[in-house]
């Protein structure tokens, strides 16, 4: 028997509805048998929570206070902005969600990087997407580039947390993502290095893999999980600028406190 288009469409609609009901029923059963809990505080997750992070932990993020420097986003102090002085002239703007380490933010970053909780990238990117950049950055940004991991570290971890954040951020901003940088050489972890050692550690460590025509005149936004002294981001920005990018901005989830910042 030959069915007309109306009958076929109705059948497809019924199949989709049944699949949706089945999916909801399965998830409800799974939640009942294995209640979902927050990665940070172990509290039971409700319907309004992210699938791995509760809204209370999000509300407890130690967000950077106002007023902030219009360029680098660091909380303002009297006189010239000391944080801006560390940025190359071709860096337009920097924004971060919250202070790290400590509190839920520190635990979120640690579990994303070292415990395999890749699902945490989603709520992190959601907060990063809401950051208030200058209007020209919002209008001009046309490429997101994640900070690359060393090859050995990428193999060990199985993913690059900065790339995960960049992909999710790109979806929210409607901006393409490209892995435009590579590490020329392995570098020490920056965690325990002094500011001067950080600069020497990453100097010349990055190169762009894009043709100069692909970067020419573009406003690139570098994406990373945390910024401390900006040594790594500055080294990445220098490589992109040398490769043809006109201007670069930075976005991160966390920012380490500088000397003199309020706890």
What features would you describe in this structure?
- This protein is α/β, with parallel strands linked by helices.
- The chain contains 10 helices and 6 strands.
- The chain has a 4-stranded parallel β-sheet with strand order 1-6-5-2, sandwiched between helices. Strands 3-4 form a two-stranded antiparallel sheet.
- The longest helix has 29 residues, at about 5-35.
- Mean pLDDT is about 85; it is low at about 15-20 and about 25-35.
Short description:
The chain is α/β, with parallel strands linked by helices and 263 residues long.
Notable traits:
Rossmann fold; 263 residues; alpha/beta
With strands numbered from the N-terminus, the spatial order across the biggest sheet is 1-6-5-2
The Cα radius of gyration reads 22 Å
β-strand percent reads 5-15%
Assembly category = single chain
Give the uncertain stretches in residue-range form. 17-21, 23-33
Run of helices and strands: HHEHHHEHHEHEHEHE
SS summary, helix count: 10
The rounded distance between the terminal residues' Cα atoms is 75 Å
Write the layout of secondary structure elements.
Layout: H1 5-33, H2 55-59, E1 91-100, H3 103-114, H4 121-129, H5 135-140, E2 143-146, H6 151-157, H7 161-173, E3 181-183, H8 195-202, E4 206-208, H9 212-215, E5 219-227, H10 231-242, E6 247-256
